[in-house]
Each structure stands twice: as structure tokens, then as C-alpha cells.
Amino acid sequence: MNSAAPAEDEWLTVTVPAFLAAHPIYTKCPTLALLLDALVRECEEQQPDIRLDAALLRASHERLVSQARILISASDRT
Predict the structure, then answer these.
(1) CA-CA distance, 51 to 26, in Å (whole number)?
(2) What is the reported pTM?
(3) Which keywords describe this protein according to UniProt (predicted)?
């Protein structure tokens, strides 16, 4: 029996929908959702044993916000 399956089910049916409900920008802007997904997948590749949980989504969201601020700051200078 694969113990990862219940965690993955919870990720898809509870964790991600709750995060998206709290952060509707990702539903309104699919490009941002794709960027968030890419950051989550990057974490998974770098740390194969990482837990699929709300903390992973929050950390990926914070990275995306931080990178967006850098982009905005750089574009203000040009």
C-alpha cells in the first residue's frame, strides 16, 4: 500500500483548494497559477521527500511575490 497516495489525495482535494480560496488571484490569473505551480514543482525536484502541505504552497507563494517585487523594482528603473 502506498502511504503517499492519501497525502497526495489530501493535497489535491483539500490543501490546494483551500489555498486557492484564500488566494483568488491564482484563479483570476492563470499565468500566476502556472508560475506558482512551477515553483512548487521546483521544490519537489530539489527535495524529493518534501511534504505536500500548506507550508509548501505558502513558501512558493512568498517566493513568487518576492520575485515579482524584484521585477517591478527593476522595471521602475528602466
Answers:
(1) 21
(2) 0.85
(3) Plasmid
* Terminal Cα distance for the chain, rounded: 56
Segments making up each domain of the chain, as ranges: 30-78
Q: Return the H-helix or E-strand segment holding 63.
A: helix 54-76
Separation between Cα atoms, residue 69 and residue 53, nearest integer Å: 25
Instruction: Label residue 60 exposed, middle or buried (CB < 10 Å: 0-12, 13-18, 19+).
Output: buried
Burial class of 16 by CB neighbour count within 10 A (0 to 12, 13 to 18, 19+)? middle
The tens place of each residue's pLDDT in the chain, 78 residues long, gives: 455 677 789 999 999 999 999 999 999 999 999 999 999 999 999 998 999 999 999 999 999 999 999 999 998 886
